[in-house]
Design a protein that fits this description.
The complex is a heterodimer of chains A (212) and B (295).
Chain A (H helix, E strand, L loop, with lengths): L1 E5 H8 L10 H17 L3 E7 L8 H15 L8 E7 L3 H14 L2 E5 L6 E4 L3 H13 L1 E2 L1 H8 L3 H13 L4 E3 L2 E3 L1 H9 L23
Parallel strand pairs in A: 1-2, 2-3, 3-4
Antiparallel strand pairs in A: 4-5, 6-8, 7-8
Helix pairs in contact in A: 1-2, 2-3, 3-4, 5-6, 5-7, 6-7
Chain B lengths: L2 E4 L3 E2 L4 H9 L7 E4 L5 E2 L1 H12 L6 E3 L4 H9 L2 H8 L1 E3 L13 E8 L2 H22 L4 H22 L3 E9 L8 E9 L3 H10 L9 H10 L12 H12 L3 E7 L1 E5 L9 E2 L5 E11 L5
Parallel strand pairs in B: 1-3, 2-4, 3-5, 5-6
Antiparallel strand pairs in B: 7-8, 8-9, 9-13, 10-11, 10-13, 11-12
Classes of the chains: A alpha/beta (212), B alpha/beta (295).
Chain lengths: 212, 295
């Protein structure tokens, strides 16, 4: 299941319809709680596109309350609430300033994308993970052997990095294959399904079947 | 008997120490008159700190307003009297507010007592200050967003840590003696709450060290991001403010109790840490951001 969540809309409906800026911890907490309610409604396995396009200012406190605390609940290696992936969409430079600082403080990472641009990673991420994630971004969907071939790295090293990226919810795992968040998003928009047997596939056809 | 405390002719964060010094020598229940008749100019720090002075007194203090009409009018336009009239017995005729906005007052004196106040401050500064910050001070649009973020974080510190409300004001003016006459924008946020040391002690108790005082509490909070909250995400607000100050060659000073800590750029005077100052409760924060030189 894929859900687009307009963060500015949530601010207006859950906190105050006069506000356009995400400032203060109580405001951030109220917005996060509303996002959690939305996530509760969209199933155990979901891709949530958090759209910041209409958010004015985002300060550090609010970034910590919304982004960091949301990620900490859903990307916990030990016991995540459920399998939820986040794509942070439409963030401005100043949003990224605030979010980058809180990601660094908590050792977190996320996938972000601006309109019309390719997605990229923000936050704390090691060299292997970044290289593999970028390879996956180019491939769209692939099994570990294909990723290892494309990246020119040893398969064990690649498998470890892919597993880490999945645990951090920066890639989707579907059976033995992996899918980039962007491919899942664009695939859902076009109503395509992931092929039954994992293989390298194009952006157009890749989408985990169970998400429709 | 009423004790008279004379306000310096030019009232800013440095000259306000004379007021703090006079106050520190007095018991809190002694009646005081703050005599600002000869004051000709006040920074946002001066105005907001004057309001906090009244909060610390057990007897309602008196305030003699500036005799110079221009000065008193400016204080009116800065909304100082709107709050001073609740806190002080005012002596002298308060000028009426005129219709037109004062372009040097980017944010009038505004109370900070609850979360909604921070939203209002941010909305107000975005409406009024953006063109000034980018047009007159030549800051990039991204810097003006970060300026507002810094303002938001400092205001939130009052709500989360002070234990009582405070005030914020933002003005812009021209330096005469420094910075070759460049303009600056100045944020002042002052409260008379529990201060940094007591805030940290409320969670962790006094530190087991030979030196646990206001100066060390400021170092821990302002420079190292310590907070009374155990949540690891806390402390990022002030860290962000520090980064902003460094990037834009600004000055940050935070006074609390008997100490003041500062990030002092080359163009400014001041010491990184001053201790043994006259005691005044709460926290008094000032950010000064200079006009960017356009090549």
């Amino acid at each position: 299941m894929i859900d687009r969540i307009d963060v500015s809309g949530i601010l207006r409906t859950s906190v105050c319809d006069l506000y356009s800026n995400l400032v203060t911890r109580p405001t951030g907490a109220a917005v996060r709680i509303e996002i959690e309610h939305r996530l509760d409604e969209i199933g155990d396995r979901a891709l949530a596109i958090l759209d910041f396009s209409h958010v004015g200012l985002l300060d550090f406190s609010c970034a910590d309350e919304i982004v960091a605390k949301l990620l900490l609940q859903y990307v916990s290696v030990d016991l995540p609430r459920r399998e939820v992936y986040f794509l942070f969409y439409g963030m401005s430079e100043s949003h990224m300033d605030a979010i980058g600082a809180v990601l660094e403080r908590h050792g977190l990472a996320l996938v972000t994308q601006r309109a019309g641009e390719t997605p990229f990673l923000m936050g704390i991420i090691d060299g292997d993970q970044r290289q593999i994630w970028e390879t996956m971004r180019d491939l769209g969907s692939a099994d570990p052997v294909d990723v290892a071939n494309a990246a020119g790295l040893a398969p064990e090293r690649v498998e470890r990095a892919l597993d880490d990226l999945w645990r951090r919810r920066l890639l989707i795992r579907q059976d033995k294959a992996y899918v980039s968040l962007e491919v899942a998003r664009s695939g859902a928009q076009q109503g395509r399904r992931l092929p039954a047997s994992p293989r390298r596939c194009t952006h157009d056809e890749a989408l985990p079947a169970s998400w429709h | 008997m009423t004790k008279v405390i004379e306000v310096p002719p030019s009232l800013d964060d440095i000259s306000f120490e004379q007021v703090f010094e006079a106050l520190a020598a007095l018991p809190p229940d002694e009646k005081i008159l703050i005599d600002a008749r000869r004051t000709r100019w006040a920074s946002p720090y001066g105005l907001t700190a004057l309001l906090t002075v009244a909060q610390t007194r057990l007897q309602r203090p008196a305030l003699a307003i500036p005799e110079l009409e221009d000065t008193a009018s400016y204080w009116t336009r800065a909304q100082f009297f709107r709050y001073a009239e609740d806190l002080y017995e005012i002596s002298g005729k308060v000028p009426r507010a005129r219709g037109s906005d004062d372009l040097s007052v980017l944010l009038e004196v505004s109370p900070i007592t609850k979360t909604e106040d921070v939203h209002q401050v941010v909305d107000r500064i975005q409406t009024k200050a953006q063109s000034m910050l980018t047009g007159t001070l030549h800051l990039e649009p991204s810097a003006s967003m970060r300026f507002t973020m810094a303002l938001s974080e400092i205001c939130q510190n009052v709500i989360e840590h002070a234990g009582r409300g405070g005030w914020v004001a933002v003005h812009t003016y021209q330096f005469r003696k420094r910075l070759q006459g460049r303009r600056v924008v100045v944020i002042a946020v002052c409260d008379a709450g529990i201060g940094f040391r007591q805030s940290l002690e409320s969670a962790h108790g006094p530190r087991a060290t030979d030196r646990w005082d206001d100066g060390m509490a400021l170092e821990e909070s302002v420079m190292r991001g310590a907070s009374r909250f155990r949540d690891p995400g806390r402390g990022e607000g002030l860290a962000g403010v520090r980064r902003f100050i460094h990037t834009w060659d600004g000055k940050l000073s935070v006074r609390s109790g008997t100490a003041q800590i500062a990030i002092v750029p080359e163009w400014a005077d001041g010491e990184p840490l001053k201790e043994g100052m006259p005691f005044f409760p709460g926290a008094q924060v000032q950010i000064t951001l200079p006009e960017k030189i356009v090549p």
